[in-house]
Amino acid sequence: MIRKTFLVSVTAGLAFAAVHSPANGAQLRSIQMSATPEAALITLSLSDGAAAKVFTLDNPDRAVIDLPGTHADRDIPVPAASGLVTGVRIGRQPGGTLRIVVELKSAVAVHSAASNGGAGRQVTVALGDPSAARDPEPKIVRAAHAPGDGDRDVIIAVDAGHGGLDPGAIGHGGTREKDVTLAIARALAEHINAAPGMHAVLTRDRDEFLELRDRIGRAHAAHADMFISVHADSIADRSISGASVYILSVHGASSQAARELAEGQNAADLMGGALDDAGAARPVVLDLVQQESIGLSATAAERVVAALESVGEVRKAQVQRAGFVVLKSPAIPSMLIETAYISNPAEERRLNNPAQQARLADAIFGGVRSYFVQNPPDGTRFKQERRVASAADVTPAAAIAIPAAAAQ
Ligand SMILES: [Zn+2]
Fold first, then answer.
1. What is the spatial distance between Cα 116 and Cα 139, in angstroms, rounded to a whole number?
2. What is the CA(316)–ligand 1 centre distance, in A?
3. How far is the CA of 207 from the centre of ligand 1 (A)?
4. pLDDT category of residue 296 using cuts at 50, 70 and 90
5. Distance 236 CA to ligand 1 centre (A)
6. Please, are residues 241 and 340 in contact by the beta-carbon 8 Å criterion?
7. Could you count the other beta carbons within 10 Å of the beta carbon of residue 130?
8. From the CA of 212, how far away is ligand 1's center (Å)?
9. pLDDT score at 67
10. CB atoms within 10 A of CB 187
11. How far, in Å, is the centroid of ligand 1 from the Cα of 266?
């Protein structure tokens, strides 16, 4: 769930925080830009960490990068107009904020990423079609198993919702969704990694802000067989409690609540940099692939709902369908689990309890495992065991038949 105040900032633009803030301010060392008529990639090199805020304005169209507590030399070179970009200006804002204004030929989507370089920090802002101006490649969190091995592990991407600047929903007692999702995701990953034939990959294992497409990107990079996004729900009515499990719906949400929730999450997607709607580029192919993966998602999500229900944690006994962008991962069965209502004071307390986190993780694990037993992907140990099991079924009959034939 996304906090209301956070959604307000979503419409204003997108922002992300540095790992640490400098005591004496940072220096902007250079501005680099490459541009095509449709896109531009701007890279800022800074001496130190700074919180950056990126947003767009229209009339005329421009992108604005605000760097609080940052200064620059008066004669720092500014990139010349090129392609999409008609000009770059640097100015000062009150309170020591350095503002870089990028004038644009037309309104475009904005994506940004921050990283710590060796001796400083880099802020990358991609404007327009990101395939024309790529962000840095998402890194693989853990080494992936090569696909195609006869007895490889099934790989499950466990995605702790929110993180970094985005706290997610906040409970009345101050619990932040991003903290409990990380705790539950870690517990789930531990469970998975302790099970034979299963391997977990965490999309994040620390308090960091991740764009939604990077979450999916990390799952793909790890060759994940399944994507599970862990969240905690929030609603005005404090009495409501229980878990819900969502899968992607292409054609409308299953309930008004699901629709509202998805709208909130999708607003966050815009905040994190809009996910490429690949479906628009290749509608027919993706529709078929997505339909298959939605069917598998439904099967897997039903198992998880059943497992959560068996420990008495479910609000809605049916799998919910909504248009979360984070679930739009073609070919990987994906689900989003709202583990509990952080807005419910009793559930907020329980979400903070490691025993309850383990209980939820255990139930989710049980559902996921039973899905893979029934639906083993090719090349996995689960598939092999299933083959052995069905071979074992016919063995007794064959064993009886052979001596009978030999006796004649
Ligand atoms: Zn959430």
1. 14
2. 17
3. 14
4. confident
5. 15
6. yes
7. 20
8. 12
9. 87
10. 22
11. 11
CATH T-level topology, domain 13-128: Immunoglobulin-like (2.60.40)
- CATH architecture of the domain covering 154-384: 3-Layer(aba) Sandwich (3.40)
* Structure confidence at residue 318 (pLDDT): 81
Against a cut of 0.70, is the pTM above it?
no
Q: Which residue has the higher pLDDT, 98 or 285?
A: 98
Give the Cα separation of 305 and 315 in Å (integer): 10
Distance (Å) from CA 278 to ligand 1 centroid: 24
CB 276 within 8 A of CB 131: yes
Cα 29 to ligand 1 centre (Å):
37
- List the domain boundaries for the chain: 13-128, 154-384
Q: How far is the CA of 268 from the centre of ligand 1 (A)?
A: 10
Q: What is the average pLDDT score of the chain? A: 74
Q: Ligand 1 is a single-atom ion; what residues have CB below 5 A from it? A: 1, 161, 168, 231
Label residue 330 exposed, middle or buried (CB < 10 Å: 0-12, 13-18, 19+).
Answer: buried
